[in-house]
Design brief:
The complex is a heterodimer of chains A (283) and B (227). With 283 residues, chain A is mainly alpha-helical. A two-stranded antiparallel sheet of chain A has the order 1-2. In chain A, helix 4 crosses helix 7, helix 7 packs parallel to helix 9 and helix 8 runs antiparallel to helix 9. The longest helix of chain A has 58 residues. Chain B has nine helices and no strands. The radius of gyration of chain B is 21 Å and the shape is elongated. The chains are: A mainly alpha (283), B mainly alpha (227). Chains A and B meet through helix 1, helix 2, helix 7 and helix 8 of A and helix 1, helix 5, helix 6, helix 8 and helix 9 of B.
């Protein structure tokens, strides 16, 4: 810039005046255009940041729910835990409602990267809860069906009785199939932990159920193979490890379960879990 | 729904998605071909003889942009319009190239910065997202930045060809552009990376202008221009 100004001075007076004039003219149109771009980009970045923030909250709350659900194995009354987890997930859903609100009128995919970690974590939590309750895999529709939010328009106070469908606005959030898939892949890690800890508690049925279920999921992922998004193939590797651990646990139960008295099983497997745990940290 | 059913449902979705991507890729390939042709036409302005032919080259490029328009309208039919950003990656690169080419043509014709509306019009697309297939602001800006480095090259070559006034005009223009980009708060993204290259283009043109100034060539050229 300095060099240019120096160059301007070296020109004759009339010329430099003329040059200033043209550059001022240019600046008005170019600068005005860039001011518009500035505003547009800032709006976009702000929205993105807000979404990232909400997504973080969703992730944290979902993780806490998962930790809570892991307590199911050593608590006598599972129903209490499940109800508490359900309550936590309601909070998470409200947050997802905020995402849906931010995305109103936008292209979901434009901001998808901002909130995909949170959504995956939510899928993981909600499918974990569903598994503990129903021993089955939650479907994508079931997840999406719960992500419908009612927003009453503030500007429209009367719409309670007859104008309810028009007055309240229905916002939906659609979990994309690939987010669902990645969330389910994460779920298998949780199931593996659940399996090991239930063995530790002397529960002999759960590991076998879990290994069946994990195998089904594994088969499903093998069926999808590399047609899915890139991350899926990465997760498939961890999934295989989890499955291996669960199958080993079942194997050990079968082989040694007949030899060892039931009350000592806990000791056998608590030593086993410590063997497995450090590796689990990588997952 | 059993696990197997669920997975085959997802699989169905994924393969449909892949088909769409395959279609898009094919059209984008033809689009890239046309973009390369336009670039070849415009590259000749760097030749010493090319300077006189700028208007005819621009007309030729504009003709080729007609092909671009039909190819883009073909692309539009390949996916639902509200899923623009889902497949954005596929045409982002070529759209930036095309924005650059449009900006370059407009610069060569009028020596002014092309507006986003003009680019959209040349490519036969929209400016705002709500109206359909549009030109993302970041892609437009990326195209403008590509043009900046092309212009720094043009400044050097125009001196070689004996045109001493053009670098001064280019210098003014690039400085405007630079102060325009300074207004933007860019995140650490590809656009920012590209913007970081702009200062080298500015520097290069300043050096050309400096060389001309100390040799009095700029003044001489001005005098010729005044007559």
């Amino acid at each position: 810039m300095n060099k240019r100004e120096g160059e301007g001075c070296s020109l004759r007076n009339a010329d430099s005046a003329q040059e200033l004039d043209t550059s001022a003219n240019l600046s008005s149109s170019v600068i005005a255009a860039f001011k518009v771009f500035q505003k547009e980009l800032d709006t976009k970045h702000d929205k993105y940041e807000r979404l990232v923030k909400i997504s973080r909250d969703v992730t944290i709350e979902s993780k806490r729910t998962i930790f809570l659900l892991h307590r199911v194995t050593n608590v006598p009354d599972t129903e209490d835990v499940l109800i508490e987890a359900e309550g936590k997930l309601d909070v998470v859903r409200q947050k997802i409602g905020l995402i849906a609100e931010e995305l109103r009128g936008e292209d979901i995919h434009q901001f998808h990267r901002a909130f995909t970690p949170g959504i995956q974590e939510y899928v993981e939590a909600v499918s974990f809860l569903h598994y503990i309750r129903h021993r089955s895999l939650i479907s994508l529709e079931e997840i999406n069906a719960r992500l419908v939010f009612m927003r009453t328009e503030k500007a429209d106070p009367k719409g309670s009785s007859e104008a309810a469908p028009e007055g309240t606005q229905v916002l939906t959030f659609q979990v994309t199939p690939s987010d669902y898939l990645l969330g389910v892949a994460d779920l298998t890690g949780e199931l593996m932990r659940m399996c090991i800890s239930s063995v530790g508690n002397g529960d002999i049925d759960t590991p076998f159920q879990l290994s069946m279920f994990l195998r089904q999921i594994h088969d499903g992922f093998s069926y999808i193979g590399n047609t899915g998004p890139y991350e899926v193939s990465k997760k498939l590797h961890t999934l295989r490890q989890s499955l291996g651990k669960v199958e080993d646990a079942c194997y050990a139960l079968r082989v040694r379960g007949s030899e060892i008295p039931k009350h000592m099983l806990a000791d056998v497997f608590s030593s086993r879990t410590t063997l497995i745990d450090p590796e689990e940290g990588v997952v | 729904m059993s696990v197997t059913e669920m997975f085959s449902y997802i699989q169905g979705f994924l393969s449909a998605d892949q088909d769409v991507r395959e279609d898009i890729r094919k059209v984008v390939q033809t689009l890239e071909q046309t973009a390369r042709e336009i670039l070849t036409v415009l590259q000749s302005v760097h030749q010493p003889s090319g300077f006189k032919e700028i208007p005819s080259k621009c007309t030729r490029a504009r003709e080729l942009f007609c092909t671009v328009r039909t190819q883009i309208s073909d692309l539009k039919t390949k996916f639902p319009v509200e899923q623009y950003y889902r497949f954005h990656e596929h045409w982002r690169f070529v759209l930036q190239r095309l924005a650059f080419l449009a900006a370059f043509v407009v610069y060569l014709e009028t020596e002014a910065l092309v507006t986003r509306e003009e680019v959209a019009q040349i490519l036969g697309i929209e400016v705002v997202r709500e109206k359909g297939f549009h030109l993302d602001v970041e892609d437009y800006l990326a195209g403008v930045l590509i043009m900046a480095s092309e212009l720094s090259r043009l400044a050097v070559n125009s001196v070689t060809a004996g045109d001493y006034t053009r670098p001064l005009r280019i210098s003014n223009f690039i400085n405007e552009l630079d102060s325009g980009f300074r207004l933007l708060n860019l995140k650490n993204d590809p656009l920012r990376k590209r913007y970081d290259g702009l200062k080298y283009d500015v520097k290069k043109i300043e050096e050309v202008v400096y060389d001309l100034s100390i040799r009095g060539l700029a003044k001489e050229a001005e005098a010729v221009g005044d007559k």
